[in-house]
Specification:
By secondary structure, this protein is α+β, with helices and mostly antiparallel strands. Helix content is 51%, strand content 17%. Strand 5 and strand 6 form a beta hairpin.
């Protein structure tokens, strides 16, 4: 008797992964910002790689192990079944009836009585099976195959949640003349429960799950260690850059290793060293420039004072062309004296030597004296509080400079009368009160392109005024004096025309010294 087992072909495994990049970017954009950090991405990458590796390895191992277990069990069962059928086949009549079939079934079962088999024999319309309950009905494909082919076939079925193996084996006979064997018409069927094999498969699944869990835990630990190693120099670099932004140019990083992060640390150190050297050189040059201006201003101050005194005396006595020449010399000397004084004041601000000598004064009275000592009443309109209504601790000399510079600037570049207002701006609950000094004129206002530079040193909004009495330092000195008091200053254009400068000084402040 010849036997050959056949089975349904294994399904082909395959698939494709497609995903638009736009959808991926949109999904990443919905991730909260803390989860987009380098640490989170490293941890996620390690976990995903470990998970995919574990699942892939586990799935491959499970498939191979399951195939091996089932194949071994199947081959063992079919070999035993074939041996049992070969042992009884010679004693089966050529045309067996139901009784003969039952004998064949009983003999096969007796030879394998401990295996838990169910056996069925079929010949034509006769069938016999044992033991009870009833034998599971083979599929039509299996019945057709064993009826037309000289090969054993098998299929796996599920009966009430229990896996079973069905084997169909046609019995052949070989003629005495030695010709090719032929089907005898007798077919033997075997039904075997596969609970033991199912148990083996479940045990493998449990083992793979445990191994995957261990791999994931190990991946998380490795990811944390790797992220810590990668992020340590990155965090050090972040701290160093913050300290450098705060002005600590001597900050350096410890360089360890030869990887890309070590190269980045070395590049940072080289950049920091070069930046420190450049800034030190710039500060040195700036200090030299300030000393030069201060020294020149100081050296010019004494001879200019003497020249001014001499020109004043000669201007009184001289007449005619000589008097006009002396008057021009006197005007030039006075402008030069003002410039020298402004430069000395600026140099004190730059050197941090400017001091506040505070005193509690009546602000309205101080503004009134400043205006009255320099300009006529019709040139300046005053809108001031009553005597004693607005008092504050300020430096009287510097407040005089602020008021004089703003009013003088308004008269030079605007049209009289200049309006000077003084009042109080109260803040909200718990906020400080401010004294507000506002100086406005009727001139053309400030050009939009000049507005950002109006308080810069030596800036002149119009090149046609390059040779005017203004040195371009008045508003810069005014702004420095306001900031020295802890106040604010701003410039704007009025809707009806003209420029307006607003100074805000805190009414309640601590005594100050040098800046």
């Amino acid at each position: 008797m010849n036997r050959r087992s056949t089975g349904p072909p294994a399904p082909a495994a395959g698939g494709s992964r497609t995903g638009p990049r736009r959808a991926l970017r949109a999904a990443v954009a919905r991730v909260p910002l803390p989860l987009r950090g380098l640490r989170s991405r490293l941890l996620t990458s390690f976990v995903l790689v470990a998970m995919l590796s574990s699942l892939g390895t586990g799935a491959l191992a499970f498939r191979e192990a399951r195939t091996g277990v089932l194949q071994q069990s199947q081959d063992s069962v079919i070999n035993r079944f074939r041996a049992s059928v070969d042992a009884v086949a010679p004693y089966v009549p050529p045309s067996p009836d139901a009784t003969d079939l039952q004998k064949v079934v009983d003999q096969v079962l007796y030879a394998n009585r401990t295996a838990g088999w169910r056996v069925m024999a079929a010949y034509g319309t006769h069938r016999a099976s044992a033991p009870t309950p009833r034998f599971t009905e083979p599929s039509d494909e299996m019945l057709t195959s064993v009826a037309t082919r000289r090969a054993a076939v098998f299929q796996r079925v599920d009966v009430d949640g229990s896996p079973r193996l069905l084997v169909g084996m046609p019995v052949t006979y070989t003629p005495e003349n030695g010709k090719e064997s032929r089907l005898s018409g007798l077919v033997m069927y075997l039904e075997v429960p596969q609970t033991a094999e199912e148990g083996y498969v479940e045990a493998m699944v449990s083992g793979i799950e445990r191994a995957t869990l261990v791999a994931l835990c190990l991946a998380v630990v490795l990811a944390l260690l790797a992220a810590s190693g990668v992020l340590r120099p990155v965090r050090a670099l972040r701290r160093a850059t913050r300290r450098m932004a705060e002005g600590h140019l001597d900050v350096r990083l410890d360089v360890t290793g030869t990887d890309e992060l070590a190269d980045l640390s070395r590049s940072f150190n080289e950049t920091a060293a070069e930046l420190e050297r450049t800034v030190a050189e710039l500060r040195r040059l700036e200090a030299r420039g300030r000393r030069f201006v201060a020294d020149v201003s100081h050296e010019l101050r004494t001879p200019l004072a003497a020249m001014s005194a001499v020109t004043d005396v000669l201007d009184v006595e001289a007449e005619g062309e000589t008097g006009e020449a002396l008057r021009l010399i006197g005007e030039g000397t006075n402008r030069l004296s003002v410039l020298v004084n402004d430069l000395m004041e600026i140099s004190r601000f730059d050197a941090g030597a400017a001091e506040l000598n505070r005193d509690e004064i009546d602000l309205a009275e101080s503004v009134r004296r400043t205006v009255a000592s320099r300009w006529r009443q019709e040139e300046v309109e005053l809108w001031l509080p009553g005597p004693g209504e607005l008092r504050a601790r300020v430096d009287p000399r510097r407040l005089d400079v602020v008021t004089a510079n703003l009013v003088g600037n308004a008269l030079r570049h605007g049209e009289p009368p200049v309006r000077v207002r003084l009042g109080v701006r109260k803040g909200g609950p718990g906020e400080a009160e401010w004294a507000v000094l506002e100086v406005s004129d009727n001139g053309p206002g400030i050009a939009p392109e000049a507005m950002p530079h109006i308080f810069e040193r030596f800036y002149k909004a119009s090149t046609s005024r390059a040779r005017s009495e203004s040195s371009g330092l008045g508003l810069a000195i005014t702004a420095e004096n306001v900031r020295l008091h802890g106040g604010r200053i701003r410039a704007a254009n009025r809707p009806g025309g003209g420029a307006v400068f607003t100074v805000e000084l805190p009414l309640h402040c601590d005594d100050g010294g040098t800046t």
